[in-house]
Design goal:
It is a single chain. Helices cover about 35% and strands about 20% of the residues. The protein is globular. Helix 1 crosses helix 14, helix 4 crosses helix 5 and helix 11 packs across helix 13. An 8-stranded mixed sheet has the order 6-5-2-1-7-8-9-10. Strands 15-14-11-16-17-18 form a 6-stranded parallel sheet, with helices on both faces. The longest helix is centred in the N-terminal third of the chain and has 16 residues. By secondary structure, the chain is of the alpha/beta class.
Length: about 400
């Protein structure tokens, strides 16, 4: 790197003020700052009447009040207290400590990262030389590009494209081809923010999940479902293993009485995800993670690996995860164990319990090898700068 870049990270913290969600975007901002870049976090309300979520009242509306307070507290705690702003399109106003300078920051930026494509490309962003779209929802994102005109127009305003579906373009991968030149990337983890902590005496296999995030999709005669579609085969798992299994599970459609009846221990998802540090404490209180993936990630053999699972690994917590094909790019068998059916899930959990210290040590090693923010973000920026040689985008 010959000089620091001015980088704008576009995310989804004010509109969805939850601990795990916040970490997802914080790792990008903090990781880029660690590399010596000038980093700003900006967010846009979009134009939807339901743009902001309040996890306390469960209301979804235009008001960013709760999210702004959440963002202020979070960014201050990680040293980015003066580095963020929020654009409220409903009132045509900016909020946050750099509100007055937000437009000029964007207009003079070298790069923006539109993580999850969660922000519109407003006029003040359209001439940024390197405009990066990071797909964190592989298969589903490509189906949106193919079926939702507004989403396709937004994508066209970028000139570098990266996806967590790291198997995209390989023979085994069935992610629908939307014609965009997707390159592989993954969740960066700022390892100094995720130290290895001692295993609790009564640690469980845990996870944080949504039963249904949105409606399943169908494209090309194939159905791409949610975690609810994956979970059915494993719902009776607590009765087959000695380890205790616990979930912080969201969404109204989750069959909580049935899960409890079958031995799953359920915890309050709001208490767990109230802020980034309650979320982190929940992961640290766990012995390991047991996690299914969205059905769409599995059937497409996307190679997706959860940003949450990467944080478990960094904390020295083994991960037992449903196979999406990520073994094509990451070592599995120690630290991360995969399964494709209930019998394999049972064997994987038993293997972790039988030699916990081996798998816990391997977990951190995997995080350092594959998810270290220095490596992930340096590589992403290098490739983005090399492929983003395109004219400024038009309004869309």
């Amino acid at each position: 790197m010959t000089k620091p870049l001015r980088i704008v990270v576009l995310g989804y913290v004010v509109r969805c003020p939850l601990g795990g969600m916040a970490w997802h975007y914080l790792q990008f901002a903090l990781g880029l700052a660690r590399l010596g870049h000038e980093v700003w976090y900006l967010e846009d309300s979009e134009d939807h009447r339901w743009s902001c979520y309040n996890p306390v009242t469960h209301e979804q509306n235009k008001s960013p009040e709760y999210g702004l307070a959440f963002a202020g507290s979070v960014f201050a705690r990680v040293g980015l207290g003066d580095r963020w702003a929020y654009h409220d399109a409903h009132t045509a106003t900016w909020h946050g400590p750099c509100a007055d300078d937000a437009v000029s920051i964007c207009e003079s930026a070298d790069v923006f990262l539109n993580i999850s494509g969660a922000n519109p490309v407003r006029p003040w962003l359209k001439d940024v030389p390197c405009r990066v779209f990071i797909d964190t929802d592989p298969a589903f994102e490509q189906i949106r590009q193919l079926t939702v005109e507004r989403r396709a127009r937004r994508a066209a305003q970028h000139n570098a494209f990266f996806t967590f579906g790291e198997n995209f373009g390989t023979p085994e991968c069935a992610i629908p081809d939307d014609g965009l030149p997707w390159l592989p990337t993954r969740q960066p983890i700022v390892l100094s923010e995720w130290p290895v902590v001692a295993r609790p005496e009564r640690g469980m296999f845990t996870s944080v999940m949504q039963w249904d995030s949105y409606k399943e999709r169908e494209y090309g005669g194939k159905v791409y479902g949610m975690k609810s579609k994956s979970f059915g085969d494993y719902i009776e798992l607590p009765g087959r293993v000695e380890a205790e299994l616990s979930l912080a599970i969201g969404s109204k459609s989750a069959p909580r009485p049935r899960l409890r009846e079958l031995g799953w221990q359920l915890v309050d998802p709001l208490a767990t995800t109230r802020d980034p540090w309650t979320y982190q404490a929940f992961l640290h209180s766990s012995a390991a993670e047991f996690s299914v993936a969205k059905h769409g990630y599995v059937v497409s053999r996307s190679g997706w690996f959860s940003e949450r699972s990467a944080a478990y690994l960094a904390s020295g917590r083994p991960v037992v995860a449903q196979d999406t094909g990520f073994g094509q790019w990451m070592r599995v068998g120690e630290g991360v164990l995969t399964f494709t059916n209930p019998d394999e899930a049972v064997k994987a959990i038993e293997a972790v319990c039988a030699d916990y210290e081996l798998h816990a040590s391997a977990a951190r090693t995997l995080a350092e090898c594959y998810f270290d923010s220095d490596q992930v973000l340096r590589h992403l920026l290098s490739r983005a700068m090399s492929v983003s040689r395109a004219p400024a985008c038009s309004d869309g």
